[in-house]
Amino acid sequence: MTGTTLTDRAILRISGEEARPFLQGLLTRDVLTLAPGAPRWTALLTAQGKALFDMILWADGDDVLIDCEAAQADALAKRLTLYRLRRKVVIARDESLAVHWALEAADRPHDPRLPALGHRWIAAPGDGDAAATFRAHRLALGVFEGAGELGQDQTLWLETNAGELNGVDYDKGCYVGQENTARMHYRAKVNRRLVAVPLRQADEKRQRAALPDMGLSIELRRVETLDPATLPDWLAAAVAAQAAAE
User: What processes in GO biological process is this protein linked to (predicted)?
Assistant: First the structure.
């Protein structure tokens, strides 16, 4: 057994009587309706709509648990603290909990981005490490996450394929970066997409991350240059639908 713990993830607990309204005005998904067992992938953006931190939200009573990249957890907590001002909100790491993953776990929620990613849940830390296995599986499906892959203040949220991966609510009201994100959506103007290509085909000008161990380059490429045959099914369908609507 390799275990189920994703050791490259951390948990931030957002608590206090204003926790949910506080996050509601910052993140791309609706936090007020977040329910137990139904996690949501979301992000904190720049004012221009570029990704800063992506994360998965979990309901824990009135509290919200943020399942985030461990290497960015302190930076995310610091950024949230800047927005808190005088709100009655507590932002803290919860070391008693960890993120778990398994490809098959029928009694656990699916990853909110794509069911094919498998099942994900929050529990006490366990033995073993599933991080490398999940990373390989996730990249094989063309799903990207974290500062190293998405870039920080580099990639517009919809260019990360967030619209197709359930990373945005278009009717939730204002949040940081909402204006540009909504404009791109309603005008169908997602002209670039984050994709994985073989490392031997890398274009350094478009590259967000080089992954030699996987033989991949994650790049931001113009939609018209993409070969649908090389895209994951879910993204090929989205690109085809956009082309048909233009």
Answer: iron-sulfur cluster assembly
- What does the alpha-carbon distance between residue 195 and residue 142 come to, in Å, rounded to a whole number? 7
User: In the structure encoding, which two tokens stand for residue 73, read together?
Assistant: 């957890």
Percent of the chain exceeding pLDDT 70 equals: 99
Beta strands in the chain (DSSP E): 9-15, 40-45, 51-60, 63-69, 90-93, 98-102, 119-123, 192-198, 207-211, 216-222
pLDDT at residue 73, rounded to an integer: 98
Report helix, strand or coil for 131: helix
Q: How far apart, in whole angstroms, are the C-alpha atoms of residue 197 and residue 164? A: 19
Residues ≥6 apart with Cβ < 8 Å to 78: none
pTM over 0.70: yes
Mean model confidence pLDDT for the chain: 95
Give the Cα separation of 221 and 194 in Å (integer). 6
CA separation for the pair 121, 202 (Å, rounded) = 35
Partnered with residue 83 across adjacent β-strands are none
Sequence ranges of the domains in the chain: 9-140, 157-244
Say how far apart CA 63 and CA 2 lie, in whole Å.
31
